[in-house]
Amino acid sequence: MRILTAIGNEELQERVRDASFDIIDEVDSLEALEDLVELMPMEGLILNRLLDNTGDNIIRICKKAKYKGIKVVIITDDFNSFEEKKLIGNLVNQGVTVYLKLDEVTPQRLEDAYNNYPQEFNYSLLAEPQENIKVERVVESVFKEVITVYSPLSQGSTTTAVHLAFALASSKKCRVCVVDFNPLKPAFKKVFNTSFEFTLPDVLDAVARQNLTYERLESLTKAYKMQTNLDILPGIYDFNEYYSSERQQYKEIIEKLKFNYDYVIIDTHSWFDVVSTDIAIKLADKVVVPVYGNIKDIEEVNRFIKTFEMYDDYDIRKFKYVINKYNGEDLTFIEIDAKLHGDIAGYISYHRGLEKGNGFSNKKIINEYIDVLNSMGVRINKKANILSLLRKKA
């Protein structure tokens, strides 16, 4: 097995050398490793967490490793601090499930790790004995996925976000939070037909005061009356409050939402240079891009995405396209697939009622969104209608 290492400690490196690996290179800095991961063929990476003060380099490397199917082992000496748990959560999202303490690094442990690389992370590693029940409750539902909905042409991001969230919550045993990060066109009051005691500015204020705990964050959301495992965080209804917010505040909100929920769905504005939109796209595991199925809109979306790729604004590999309000006047499936530069997650047909509110009670609509989620790797079953159930029984 071909392994690349970045350890920076001779004693640890010797233990790795004693394992039955083909070590293709040994580097002492993570900066040097980033290019090597892209250029050199390998099956495994062994990284020393202590080489990266912030964790940013490790996250970037592990994203590239996940894309190339490389198994990563992290050597660390800390599982308990908040910052380290947050980093491990980000790494778990990149498929990294093996973490060894410094004194656990032996040839046998390393060989076992790669021969039996676990599919799931053992969250009990993060539990502190004196708070075992509380910590396990938090980590059982954490670090699944952040899905950002971004439409550069304003072609249904809010509708898509709320229906993806409802489809998830109503069809899968999980906790979902849908968040409005669109400061120019907040729409959750209309879509959910409800009022809210708290909105995003209350959460931003808690971040600014440095008192946004996980419990406080959950108390500022509102459970949806039709689906109680779906929490709602409405947006900014006074645009002046957007100007007083900062980039780091949105980042902290997303990171803490990931601890409380299995899935976080974020609605954004079409302007990617709006701070909340930019952060939501960068921190997302997947980005859903609604677009209409005509040639002009498809060409315009292609232009946006090519620009993102040219200037390395975002990782466009995580962009998934949804053809919204699909109807008989649009291009055919084959034509759209040929002209759109990206992966198509699904088609949402035109429904007149969505313009006035939501389609949560319409099983046909929800099943279309379930198809989108399934194509993105979120495994859930479609909702059956009464007629189909009667036919099965007959």
TrEMBL record:
<dbReference type="InterPro" id="IPR050678">
    <property type="entry name" value="DNA_Partitioning_ATPase"/>
</dbReference>
<feature type="domain" description="AAA">
    <location>
        <begin position="156"/>
        <end position="311"/>
    </location>
</feature>
<dbReference type="InterPro" id="IPR027417">
    <property type="entry name" value="P-loop_NTPase"/>
</dbReference>
<protein>
    <submittedName>
        <fullName>AAA family ATPase</fullName>
    </submittedName>
</protein>
<dbReference type="Pfam" id="PF13614">
    <property type="entry name" value="AAA_31"/>
</dbReference>
<dbReference type="InterPro" id="IPR025669">
    <property type="entry name" value="AAA_dom"/>
</dbReference>
